[in-house]
Amino acid sequence: MIEPLNRAPRWARYALVHLVALALIAFWLWRANQPQALAEVPPDRARLQCVSYAPYYRPGESPLVPGFRVERERIDADLARLARVTDCVRLYSVDQGLDAVPELAGKHGLKVLVGAWIGGDLKRNDAELSEAIALANRHRDVVRGLIVGNEVLLRREQTEAAMRAYIERAQRETEVPVTYADVWEFWLKHRGLADSVDFATIHILPYWEDEPRAIDEAIVHVSHVMERMSGELGKPLLIGETGWPSLGKQRDGARPGLIEQARYLREFLLAAQAHDWQYNVIEAYDQPWKRLLEGTVGGYWGVLDSAGHAKFGWHGAQAERSDGATPLTAGAAGLLIGVCVVLAARVRRSGAAAAYALSGALAGLVALLQWEYLQLACRNLPEWLGMGAVALAGWVAWALLPFALTGRAQGALRAALRVLLFGLAVAGLLLAVDGRYRDFPFLLFALPALQFGLAARWAGFGLMPALPEARLFALIAVAGSTVAWLADWRNPQALAWALMAAVLAAAFARPGSARD
After folding, report:
1. What is the dihedral of CA 134, 137, 141, 146, to 10 degrees?
2. Of 141, 206, 296, 387, whose CB has the highest number of CB atoms within 10 Å?
3. Which of 427, 384, 422, 389 minimizes the C-alpha distance to 508?
4. Which residue in 159, 157, 175, 170 sits closest to 126, CA to CA?
5. Four-residue CA torsion sign, 498, 499, 503, 504
6. Which tens digits make up the pLDDT trace of 134-156?
7. Collapsed DSSP state (helix, strand, coil) of residue 203
8. If we measure between CA atoms, which residue out of 396, 331, 340 comes closest to residue 365?
9. pLDDT tens-digit readout, 143-195
10. CA-to-CA distance for 302 and 306, rounded, in angstroms?
């Protein structure tokens, strides 16, 4: 007679949790490597009208770095690469060496939307606008338009009256068409500016909407906005920014991903051609520096990656990932299996070695995904140290399982679990108070959640030692994660994170004996 599952040997239950988790992750990786059919853009129509160009795609480069200047040779090489995929580039500033773009763009047959950056510094604004006007006048054959300010009203750095004065100055001093760029909702709040521009440059970014639009609704949303704005402003329209991120945090139903990015831009190109929209795509190259301002998602809007390689094609099937079952994956799993067999020898119980070896296969797979996540999510040294410490603590706690079952290594286990508990509380708190630009750190807590929150509890291993601060920090973690979910309640990632935090917090709040 088969023994009921809830009375099965402890190691069998422990193994079953890891087997299910391993199967789910393996299936997810397999699914992500399967090409999916998307809208087809014919080769003769797979060319962008215009694309945002910023040359800050190498580590440490940023327009926020004082004194940074882009070499003319690099700009020349970038524009030569972009001339293969677009007819025009949009600039946001003419500082830091970007004043060379119009001349070099003409060499490569590109048009330019020159941008004058307008912020809160009046002296700098005046110098920037003067240089932009001079460039527009000097390269009238190349400059398609002069954009005076980008989302200045959104950032509340100038008033509508001040922006009108800047725009009217540009109108007086140059012969090229003049415009202002902002998100479409702010054009509705400041309709009066339409009287001062030759055409209105509006930003439509379904992912960043106050009510984010899922990929299935994105193009319909763009169409509705264009129809409304045409009637409201009574001016020719340029979609100054549109696009989709290939990595980052999901917002409501808007999920970043390479499939979603490829799908959005393919469908957008077809819609733009059908409706005769004028547009500029954000952006040419991925911009790692933007992660400091917008989290992971900010760095991955490019149609090209930071190395200048196309991230997707305009026709044919597309896969989210292209790693498959690599030797590295198999090697990591095999190494951890071996380590587990050795460690499991410390526990002289039937089935321990096999079950813990299965745990090693899962741990090896998670290790690779954790490293990938840390590279994407860590934006500076403090984040590398903080998130790296949490990941390391999870590994230490995992490796100490055989010793914990025999009542040893309790001091080391407590230290690792304190780091995990503190990290869980901090993650929950940050997501509650500053969650817009923060990812859900699933992978940092995946191993301890499985090991202590699910497998050990269900198997009956009382592994969690008592920690005096456990209940307080667990409450902070659960409360913060719940607030983050309620703020984005239709987001499945937010719900999944809240559940994971609750499972792990419950394990911390209910300690048990460390003996088998």
Report:
1. 70
2. 206
3. 422
4. 170
5. negative
6. 999 999 999 999 999 999 999 99
7. strand
8. 331
9. 999 999 999 999 999 999 999 999 999 999 999 999 999 999 999 999 999 99
10. 8
